[in-house]
TrEMBL record:
GO terms for biological process: putrescine biosynthetic process from arginine, via ornithine. Its cofactor is pyridoxal 5'-phosphate. One of its GO terms (cellular component) is cytoplasm. Signal peptide: none annotated. The keyword Lyase applies. InterPro entries: Ala_racemase/Decarboxylase_C, De-COase2_N, De-COase2_pyr-phos_BS, Orn/DAP/Arg_de-COase, Orn_de-COase, PLP-binding_barrel. GO terms for molecular function: ornithine decarboxylase activity. Pathway: Amine and polyamine biosynthesis; putrescine biosynthesis via L-ornithine pathway; putrescine from L-ornithine: step 1/1. Belongs to the Orn/Lys/Arg decarboxylase class-II family. Pfam families: Orn_Arg_deC_N (PF02784). This is ornithine decarboxylase. It comes from Longimycelium tulufanense.
Length: 399
């Protein structure tokens, strides 16, 4: 059972909004936007992009658009020279509309319709992931001459939101798929894998890198020179449970590439989503009610106006434990269950993770959920139970 002492994040004596980036605080104080809402600090996005670049300078950075598809975020990353990892035609069109060149787009989703491959090719995308024969045939037919990389199935421990076995194939199968790609007139560019999101173990890439090196060698024996090693995402944002800083990840990954690839020096790529936008966002939410279920209940229920369906999807299974800031931080606290506003019994954010919130917390108080820039607005439902999707406001130095 996860046990989190909330006081660790809201510590005694700190101001109510400690941890909220200054520009976001200014915007919230001045504009008083309707809650719930997500506010993204664009300069933090730029900073985190620079951090990823610095941690792995030899790698091309493909931003995983699904983490936060706000047009302002994509436009900023276009200006900074990022490439983009997309999963669907609408994500491709979003990147193009924000000024990305099609050559900077990687269609990294191995699960796609034939018509989606055709759309991507029509608008200029020439780089595709695959993990199956059927998708390979679709790409050969609808995107002739394109470069393809094969996703390997890896299942390292340590990820807060693992991918399970949905994506990727065995190394043996990858070798055959890439060899077949060459026969079909495609460029067998290399391999990718993803260690699962919010990966807390910097050594989790080792197994995938070792498997990738085996694929490269086997292809070389067949006269095929693979070049592309796409290390996926998985780099962390700052939640209650601390993770290692990015340079530690960079060092571990680089050492593993050295160890398994030796002199082959592949072209490296990463596909960070969470680590680029997670810490840049704050969700401002209002306390709807605070109640108890019986006179002797030892914990209170705190109902927020944000829940599983309008932004807090990653609370499923309590995978991600966000840091929460309230106006009463510093005062006495007690145990709480935190829940969302809808009439759905699953719309509970935390009941096993032991959050402690101030005893003074009341209906109408505004609370801030920190590091909420990734997988929040993009996961919000259309309008479940009449609660609209989470709106996003972006702030910058010019705001
Ligand atoms: C979601 C996804 C990513 C981003 O993962 P993070 O853990 O957010 O960095 C990268 N690559 C692929 C293929 C993905 O599906």
């Amino acid at each position: 059972m996860a046990t989190v002492d909330h006081r660790r994040s809201v510590g005694q004596g700190r101001t109510a909004t400690a941890g909220v980036p200054a520009r976001i605080r200014t915007f919230l104080d001045r504009d008083r936007p309707q809650t719930p809402c997500l506010v993204i600090d664009l300069p933090t996005v730029a900073e985190r992009y620079a951090d990823v670049r610095a941690a792995l300078p030899e790698a091309r950075v493909f931003y995983a658009v699904k983490a936060n598809p706000a047009p302002e975020v994509v436009a900023l990353l276009v200006r900074l020279g990022a490439c983009f990892d997309v999963a669907s035609p609408p994500e491709i069109d979003l990147c193009l509309a924000q000024g990305a060149c099609p050559e900077t787009i990687s269609y990294s989703n191995p699960i796609k319709k034939r018509s989606d491959v055709a759309h991507a090719h029509r608008v200029g995308v020439r780089l595709f992931a695959l993990d199956s024969t059927q998708d390979l045939e679709h790409i050969a037919a609808e995107a002739p001459g394109s470069s393809v990389f094969c996703r390997l199935l890896v299942e390292p421990a340590g990820a807060k939101t693992p991918f399970g076995r949905k994506f990727g194939c065995s190394a043996d199968m990858a070798i055959d798929l890439l060899a077949r790609a060459a026969e079909l007139g495609l460029a067998p560019y290399g391999v990718s894998f993803h260690v699962g999101s919010q990966q807390t173990d910097p050594d989790a890439w080792e197994g995938g890198i070792a498997a990738a090196a085996r694929v490269f060698r086997a292809l070389a024996e067949r006269g095929i020179r693979a070049r592309f090693l796409n290390l996926g995402g998985g780099f962390p944002a700052s939640y209650l449970e601390p993770a290692s800083p990015l340079p530690v990840y960079g060092k571990a990954v680089r050492a593993a590439v050295e160890r398994h690839f030796g002199g082959m020096s592949p072209e490296l790529a990463v596909e960070p989503g969470r680590s680029i936008v997670g810490d840049a966002g704050v969700i401002r939410s209002e306390v709807v009610l605070v109640s108890r279920k019986s006179y002797d209940d030892d914990h209170r229920w705190v109902y927020l106006d944000v829940g599983r369906y309008n932004g807090m999807a990653e609370c499923e299974g309590e995978a991600i434990a966000y840091r929460i800031v309230t106006p009463h931080d510093g005062g006495p606290v007690g145990p709480v269950v935190i829940a969302g506003p809808t009439c759905d019994g699953d719309d509970v954010l935390y009941q096993r993770t032991r959050y402690q919130l101030p005893l003074d917390l009341r209906a109408g108080d505004q609370v801030d959920i920190l590091s909420a820039g990734a997988y929040t607005a993009s996961y919000a439902s259309v309008c479940f139970n009449g609660f609209p999707p989470l709106p996003t406001h972006c702030v910058s130095d010019r705001t």
